[in-house]
Amino acid sequence: MKNPNGFGTVTKLKGKRRKPWVVKVTIGFDDEGRQKQKCIGTFSNRLDALKHLAKYNSSKEMQESYETVNEVHTLGECINCIIERDKNRKSKSWYDAKKWCYSLLSEIVDVDIKELNLTRLQKAFDNLKKQGKTQVTLGKCKIAVGTAFKYAIIHQWIPKDDDFSMYIDITTDNNERKTIHYPFSREEIRYLIDQKDFFSKVVLAYILTGCRASELLKIDKLTDDYLVCGLKTKSGKNRIIPIHPYIKPFIKEVIKYLDSTKYNSIQPKFQKYMNSLNMNHTMHDTRNTFATLAKESGIDHRTIKKILGHSTNDITEDLYIKESTDFLIQQIKKIKID
Q1: What are the structural domains of the chain?
Q2: Could you tell me the pTM of the whole model?
Q3: N or C: which end of the chain has fewer CB within 10 A?
Q4: Are 332 and 244 within 8 A, CB to CB?
Q5: Ramachandran region of residue 27, left (φ > 0), alpha (ψ -120 to 50) or beta?
């Protein structure tokens, strides 16, 4: 039977817990007319929860005693609060990454953050390891959990000592590949050229621009000779990337495809394509390849850094020396791939 309007609700939280039944009562409405609720207790069974709700509604003294009661705040709520708080001052890639982590942590996002001890957190991360998630991915999820716990501490939902996120073990059985990047060989690049399929063009676009995985997903400007994009660092933002002659015929098609592609899907697609070609590379290897090709082709070290979006660590050069677009376009032509 449905409760009367404003009476309150009894809901069951997901997962195995000692008291899964939560009693919530309405404390007001937001600007859009939606109910704002607070928790007034948790119970081991639904009947006790309903009795408590009925008793609450029949006793003014009991209602007054719950004015400062602690609410249930889930891990997912904390993550979403952080996303809403920071989304206007963060990049789209940051937003997509946080949403991606939220989806990966589906096992624990509905759990009250007060009930998330290290054992439960570690189990969730161990399950991600079993799914084949990389240490980089696990690291991003750990950061998301850590910021959620800090948010809960700031709002006094949990004491500082209850932040177990820093102790989550994200090491995997195969860590060597996480820190060593291998450039595509000349033979592999020629093999990509021979494929003639669309995704080979995507890979070649990344190789010959040196852009980060997320940067080509959101460019600021595209012309026939260069594009403007950049994220992450001051040196990397709004930088000019000269377009290599080989990718000119299809770069606009690739950019159009990437513009509708989410960050959390481009890397799995890249990995699937690499597996189909029996190649062992990550997306970051494309940047490593660009740097290698540029160096082998005689492009000076400073120009390579500028195209990649790295600081030269020289204040005079960073502040006063600005390469012209024409200079960069001429430099990129030095790279010969066919």
Answers
A1: 9-65 (no CATH), 75-178 (1.10.150), 181-332 (1.10.443.10)
A2: 0.53
A3: N
A4: yes
A5: alpha
